[in-house]
């Protein structure tokens, strides 16, 4: 089997090949690192490689597997992670100048769990500085390029994560999500990206953007991969004050549902307002396909969504500015211009603004909870617009230029306010770029969200198409 054909496979597929002896973890890690290095000048997905350590970990994985000690479906599979998630004793830059030499003493909770699962970590991935941006055009480490069209943004802030998996430079990965930073690049790069329920995945050892909105989750080539990686990283850690003690599901086993038993919610007034016409058609086509398979489709109302954009920004800007306040006073010129402006803007919000935003947030949570009593999931577009050219502050919305950041987070931000699980998955192309559909579910019901994703995926909405910049 050629290196290219191996690299195109999903994480769980190559995991099975490692475990049955078709390929070794060392061989696969060598092939992936060679491919990633050869493409990185074009895509700029990696900030750093950890080749020597990765190959040592792959060798250890091969020895354990040969001895029959298989730690799970991802044992021996190489993948990289976003550079705001710490690997103990190694540099994590947050794609910043201020923290360009930062070294953590400890592994992040999720990194420790990945190591325990036998995953081979190949390097750290590029991102928008301090995870506060949606185009991944970094002033310090350069822009990440979308593997579907190298002139287009990959989404952010986990743009390096999205581009790496889409171009076969990592079999799967982790992103972080405060207003959509897993789901935005997943939509833009044609991946499955899951923002789990707030508290399901511990955030210890991840540099914060906004304490009450931050999440960590998988970005993968398939729903099965996302389920397998979630199985690895989910679980309580007392070192994270937002971590919740809850039973971790068996997410891969949940991917066998019957569409006829599903009730699909559609919120028309917010999630289908001001949407690119081609995106809207693709998403509605998938809702109809579920209905054709026997699912029930029901309209739901979430009136407080009208205020969600303000509540999201008031919360995220205030919390982020508090985190970076001292550096904003003492080292303002070391921030990129775009995020320095956002941090300065966050200082403008008053305590009244912040607390009023939390009251709006509480109402939005209640409205979602009420809607999700009637339906299993709510389906919506992930993004209302397509990714623009790198450097553009605007996107096209049916022939009109609109602000990029406002529109990229418009449909993703509500799930950060509520903490509800939300999955983005690809459902077709427009002008050679992927379109994302979003599935929002009940708190800690990732099984249903992933199951709905697997049913949609089984219909092959991407018709087998892959990013042209890849293996």
TrEMBL record:
<dbReference type="InterPro" id="IPR020556">
    <property type="entry name" value="Amidase_CS"/>
</dbReference>
<dbReference type="InterPro" id="IPR000120">
    <property type="entry name" value="Amidase"/>
</dbReference>
<comment type="similarity">
    <text>Belongs to the amidase family.</text>
</comment>
<dbReference type="InterPro" id="IPR036928">
    <property type="entry name" value="AS_sf"/>
</dbReference>
<dbReference type="InterPro" id="IPR023631">
    <property type="entry name" value="Amidase_dom"/>
</dbReference>
<dbReference type="Pfam" id="PF01425">
    <property type="entry name" value="Amidase"/>
</dbReference>
<feature type="domain" description="Amidase">
    <location>
        <begin position="27"/>
        <end position="450"/>
    </location>
</feature>
<protein>
    <recommendedName>
        <fullName>amidase</fullName>
        <ecNumber>3.5.1.4</ecNumber>
    </recommendedName>
</protein>
